[in-house]
Each structure stands twice: as C-alpha cells, then as structure tokens.
C-alpha cells in the first residue's frame, strides 16, 4: 500500500505560524472546517512539473529499503510539463503553517518511499525540509530519516514504517473528521467537512482514498511466491469502492480520472489500485526485486537519467518547476485566511460549540475537570467523558470485561458518526493504530482503547509507534496478572510489565485501588505526548489507607510509615494488587516492633522523573533492607531494591486455578513478604555491626 489519504480538516485559533512548533501542535489558525469535499491527498499527487529532487541511487545509503525507488516513484506520480492543471490538483495545505487544522492530510504508509515525500515538501515551500536535509537523507542530525517521523519533520502527519500502521492511522484521520463534522456542523454553517481496512468500509469513510502500488515485486522476488490474493475482490468484499489504473507509469489521464471518480463516491472508502513497473525508466533493473531493496548504483542512475530524458544535475530544480511550486505558499495562506473568517462567523452564532471545538483542536483542558477524578476506577472514563469533549474510544470486543463503555454515548457507526464509543472488534493491532491516528489529528482528541493486558502482544507495534510518535493514547489493559485465575497461562501476563517499562516514552502505570486508578487517569489525560498504559486487575481490590492521586503523579510514594528520620528498618514496595499484600505484611511486622515503610511504586517512569531529593525521601539510599512484590517478571526490580534487597515475583508462566491458589503456590503472599523482610533486615543489621 503506497499511500493513503483522507480529507481536509479543521484549523482553529489564530496562533503564530511556525514550522518549529512541536509536532501536531496547532499553530495559528481558527477552527478550520471547509464546506467543500476534500480528501487526504498526498502532496505527491499534486502534479509536480518534473521529477522530484534526488541524489541518484548510486549515492543512496546502504541498508534496508532505498526510499521506495526514487526513479520509480517520481516517474509514475509526478506530472510532466504538458499535463495542465488536472482534476486532482486540489490538496489544501499551507506550507507556512504545517499544523493548520483544516489541511488535507497525507499518510505515506509505505514509509520507505519517504524521499519522494521529502522532495515534494521541499518543493512546496515547507521550511522543515531544506536542500541540505535532502542531501543528508538518513544521516545523523537531518530532518529526513529513513521512514517518515511526524515529530521530526513538520509536514509529515504520522510516523510510519511498521507494516500497516500508516494505513490504519489514516483510517481514523478520516473518521475523526466525519465524527467532528457530525458534532459541530450546522445547516447554515458547515465548519467541518472531513471525515483499518475492515472498519473503513464498515464505517463508510467516504473521504478515505488509498493508493495501492501494484508492482508485483517484494524484497525476495515476485509477489507470486507468497501472494495470490485478488486485492480487488477482497476490498470490494470489505465494502470499498475499487478502481484499477492499469498504466501507472505514464497514464496521467487515467490517474486523474480515477481520483475524480473516487471523490464522487461519498458513502464508502476508495482503493485505487495502480499497476506500475518498479524501477520504471531503469534500462537494466526495471521490474526486478533488486530495485526494491538496493540502490541502482551510479552507472545505472546515469543510464536511467538518459532514458527518462532528465539532463539536470542532482538537486538542481529548473526555474519553471520552482515557479510552478512557488504558488503554494500564498495559495495556502489564502485558504487558511478564508477558513479563519468562516470560523469567526461560526463562533458568533454558536459560542458553546465553538469553545468545545477549540478545546479539541488546541488540547486545552476545560476548567474544573480535575474534580472528576474522585470516582472509583470503573467510573473514571464516564466521569471524564462528561467534561472532556475530545475523549472517545473503545475495546477490542471486551467492553463489558474491560468496563470501558461510555454509558451516556452511543456507538460510532456509519449512521451515527457523532457518537464516541468505538467498536473495534477483535482487532488489537488495528485498534492501537487507529488510536494513534485520533491522537495525532488534534491535541484535544484523547483516544483510549482496551483489551486484556496479555493481548498487548497483538498490538505492540502500534504501542511502540504511539511512544515514538509522541501520541497520547490511553491504553486501558485489564486482567493484568495471575489474578485472573482459571483462564490459565495463555491469558496471564508475566513479562508484560517489564517489557513496557523498557520501552522509551511510555508511562506504565499499575494502580492499586480507586484512588490510584483515578490518579492514573489524571496522569494519562495530562500527558498528551506520552502514551499511558494502565494495568488494571480483574479481581476487586479494597480501598487502601494512604493512597492518593497526588502520590500517583509522583510515580512512587509512601502509603504508610512508622519510622522517623527517614530511617525505617525495612521498606516494602508493591504495585497494583500486590500493594495490599505489602500493606498487610507491614502491619504484621510493626506488631513485632519493626519500623516499616510501605511504598506504592505505581509508575517507574514518573518516579524516575522526580528530583533526587524526592526519590531519596521515598527510597533512602542508606536503607538497603528492601523487598518488592509484584505478580509478574522480576526483571528490572534489582534497580529498585538493590543488590541487598529481595524481589518477590514470577519468572515462569502462570497456571490454571483459582487466583488465591495460584498466589499461594507462587509465593505471592503476606507470609513470604514477612520472611523476606526479616531476612534483608537481619542482613543489613549484621553489616552495620561489622
């Protein structure tokens, strides 16, 4: 799948236009919603008057994909000088403000073709891609990495590379606009006119156009070695409109006609299958798998240039091409100004709706939203949905088990796009990618998704893209340990907590009761550039004395302590359902005369973010008698308890039995904690005597 596109969007609030703004931060434009019908087009489809800039395959860096084949891409997508304006030259974007809300959004799902996208961003006038960046493709310090990264290059909407991720994200870039249009458009003032493979057809995303590069070549050879599926039939069966462009190499009129036809289809997404010759123009390597994963080489690049009639030196842009592209900056500014004026009129008539839409676009949280965290865990989402207009999401067919249904709203469906419950079905991978698309559309859209914690294995690529893209998705993962009991080891997460703690830019939170769950949701809502994973238990947990929302915000804190001078005899550290075990063990040890501090370490990442002084106040370095307890892998806990502490956990798969029996057999008990605490305390006392 070469590229997917959705439709034009909203732009809100006059803010200084700048390409140095953080990714997906709305910069200056009022709520942009156009009454015209637009799609998410690739700037590549805009109709360049010649091939894009390129260094030539002979200089391409080694390793991985080589930019999708620069020659193949530019010749089949750019438009020659005779092509006129063409029906499909209608993307709406402002190079001076890449974050304009009502822009058309382009997603390059086949991310290894990103050199084409970078070249076109440069030609269109985006300051984010200078000529030096093009010359430094895939090199340290450039803004042209080997796959598109939204946080690195303004003009790139989402991060792509892992297979299917860009495609799924694009589905919800389109769906979000359908959702916002249904909520905010008025009969006399339509400020929003925008709208995974299966769900796009089910939801009738008429503003989604996907281009499928049908070149029959994979890295290992012809696709027939492993692929015999009829793509046309498959997509038609999924509710898509399918168009086949048979000559994608030079059939410009055919491509234009296909786009025109796709724009006319309003009730379903469109797949445009474009049959091309990979490496088109290369005399000796066209239509070969070597073009997919390797550079052409200097000699073949020269031969290809001659064959295509392109005499210019690398990176030279002819004056007529510069002139053609130079119109985009004033044209884009005019489009944005036009929408700003339209929104100003909307705001006068519909003040409440305009304010709500502004909060979605800018990410500014409503006044007083904090008080809604005083609810028990299963009530948090519903309490928040009342005050956060951008909160929406759902579960992978487990809403009743995950308790994530927004009870005051209906289901987002083809006929009810304004609703906020999303029925993802059993599609964990697509669910995560879709939520990334929601989060990256607007700062004030707060997506959440849910499944059993063990099933994050099916969506790890999407979660990793969340972290890499700085997408503030809230992952609500229930049934977080052996505590789920009889379903057995296939459903009992063991290594999952440790694995997500190892992932950069993730907030892994494991709350112990209602207070901590409310705090975890607060943290997740506030952190718009760090995805949060909330690991929640299946079993009911008691409200523990000493837990607090404020403590969760610090990542770790003491819930009880009978010591003085920051010198307890022993520190017991627990998370989630095992914090209760630590608390009970602490009570028993105090009866024996010990001074005990019980610490809830809800989030290692948040705790690491605190000052050294705060961390010392919770886990003083002088106190080496430490015991941790968590019903999961012990990996990583040595960093917390030190070489003289003890870690109680599970380093094998679980078992099928009642939860209480499993806890007892695996030694996750109050008695085990007491025994370990006495051992580490005795050891530390002997050391002091020495």
Automatic annotation (TrEMBL):
Q: Where is this site: Important for catalytic activity?
A: 292
Biased region (Basic and acidic residues) positions are 71-90
Composition skew (Low complexity), residue ranges: 1-30
Question: Could you say which cofactors this protein requires?
Answer: Ca(2+); thiamine diphosphate; Mg(2+); Co(2+)
Where do the Transketolase-like pyrimidine-binding domain residues begin and end?
Answer: 371-543
What does the record give as EC number? 2.2.1.1
Instruction: Detail which positions bind Mg(2+).
Output: 215, 217
Residues of the signal sequence? Answer: none
Q: Sorted alphabetically, which SMART domains does this protein's record hold?
A: Transket_pyr
Q: Which family does it belong to?
A: Belongs to the transketolase family.
Q: How does it assemble?
A: Homodimer.
* Protein name, entry field: transketolase
Species annotation: Vitis vinifera (Grape)
Q: Which gene encodes it?
A: TKTC_2
């Amino acid at each position: 799948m070469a590229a997917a596109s959705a439709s034009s969007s909203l732009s809100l609030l006059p803010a200084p236009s700048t390409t140095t703004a953080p990714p997906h931060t709305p910069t200056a434009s009022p709520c942009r919603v156009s009454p015209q019908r637009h799609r998410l087009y690739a700037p590549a489809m805009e109709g360049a008057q010649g091939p894009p800039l390129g260094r030539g395959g002979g200089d391409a860096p080694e390793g991985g994909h080589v930019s999708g084949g620069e020659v193949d891409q530019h010749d089949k997508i750019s438009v020659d000088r005779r092509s006129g304006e063409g029906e499909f030259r209608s993307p709406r974007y402002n190079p001076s403000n890449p974050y304009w809300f009502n822009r058309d959004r382009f997603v390059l799902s086949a991310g290894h073709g990103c050199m084409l996208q970078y070249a076109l961003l440069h030609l269109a006038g985006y300051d984010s891609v200078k000529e030096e960046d093009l010359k430094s493709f895939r090199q340290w310090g450039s803004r042209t990495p080997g796959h598109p990264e939204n946080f690195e290059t303004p003009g790139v909407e989402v991060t792509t590379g892992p297979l299917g991720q860009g495609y799924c994200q694009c589905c919800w870039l389109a769906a979000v606009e359908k959702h916002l249009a249904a909520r905010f458009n008025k009969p006399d003032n339509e400020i929003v006119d925008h709208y995974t493979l299966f769900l796009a057809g089910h939801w009738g995303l008429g503003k989604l156009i996907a281009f499928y590069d049908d070149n029959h070549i994979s890295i290992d050879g012809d696709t027939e070695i492993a692929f015999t599926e009829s793509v046309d039939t498959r997509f038609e069966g999924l509710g898509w409109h399918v168009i086949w462009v048979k000559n994608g190499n030079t059939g410009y009129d055919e491509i234009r006609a296909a786009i025109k036809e796709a724009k006319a289809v309003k009730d379903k997404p469109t797949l445009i299958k474009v049959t091309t010759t990979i490496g088109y123009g290369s005399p000796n390597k066209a239509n070969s798998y070597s073009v997919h994963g390797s550079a052409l080489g200097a000699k073949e690049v020269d031969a290809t240039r001659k064959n295509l009639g392109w005499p210019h030196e690398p990176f030279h842009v002819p004056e007529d091409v510069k002139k053609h592209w130079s119109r985009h900056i004033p044209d884009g500014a005019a489009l944005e100004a036009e929408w700003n004026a339209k929104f100003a009129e909307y705001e006068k008539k519909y003040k409440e709706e305009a304010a709500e839409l502004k909060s979605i676009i800018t990410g500014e949280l409503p006044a007083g939203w904090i008080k809604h965290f005083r609810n028990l865990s299963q009530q948090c989402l519903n309490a928040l949905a009342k005050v956060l207009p951008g909160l929406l999401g759902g579960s992978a067919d487990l809403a009743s088990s995950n308790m994530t249904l927004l009870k005051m709203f209906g289901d987002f469906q083809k006929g009810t796009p304004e609703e906020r419950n999303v029925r993802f079905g059993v599609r964990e991978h697509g669910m995560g990618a879709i939520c990334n698309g929601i989060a990256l559309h607007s700062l004030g859209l707060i997506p959440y998704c849910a499944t059993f914690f063990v099933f994050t294995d099916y969506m790890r690529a999407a979660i990793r893209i969340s972290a890499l893209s700085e997408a503030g998705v809230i992952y609500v993962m229930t049934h977080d340990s052996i505590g789920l009991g009889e379903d057995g080891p296939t459903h009992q997460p063991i290594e999952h907590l440790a694995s997500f703690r190892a992932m950069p830019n993730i907030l892994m939170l494991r709350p112990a009761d209602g207070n901590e769950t409310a705090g975890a949701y607060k943290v997740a809502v506030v952190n718009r550039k760090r995805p949060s994973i909330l690991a929640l238990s299946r079993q009911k947990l008691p409200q523990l004395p000493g837990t607090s929302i404020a403590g969760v915000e610090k990542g770790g804190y003491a819930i009880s302590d009978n010591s003085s001078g920051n010198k307890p005899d022993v520190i017991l550290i627990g998370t989630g359902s095992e914090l209760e075990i630590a608390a009970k063990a602490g009570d028993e040890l105090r009866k024996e005369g010990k001074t005990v501090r019980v610490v809830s370490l809800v989030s290692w990442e948040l705790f690491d973010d605190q000052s050294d002084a705060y961390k010392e106040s919770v886990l003083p370095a002088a106190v080496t008698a430490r015991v941790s307890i968590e019903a999961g892998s012990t990996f990583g806990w040595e960093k917390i308890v030190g070489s003289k502490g003890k870690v109680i956990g599970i380093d094998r798969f679980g078992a099928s039995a009642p939860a209480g029996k499993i806890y007892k057999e695996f030694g996750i008990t109050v008695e085990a904690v007491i025994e370990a605490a006495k051992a580490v305390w005795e050891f530390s006392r002997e050391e002091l005597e020495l």
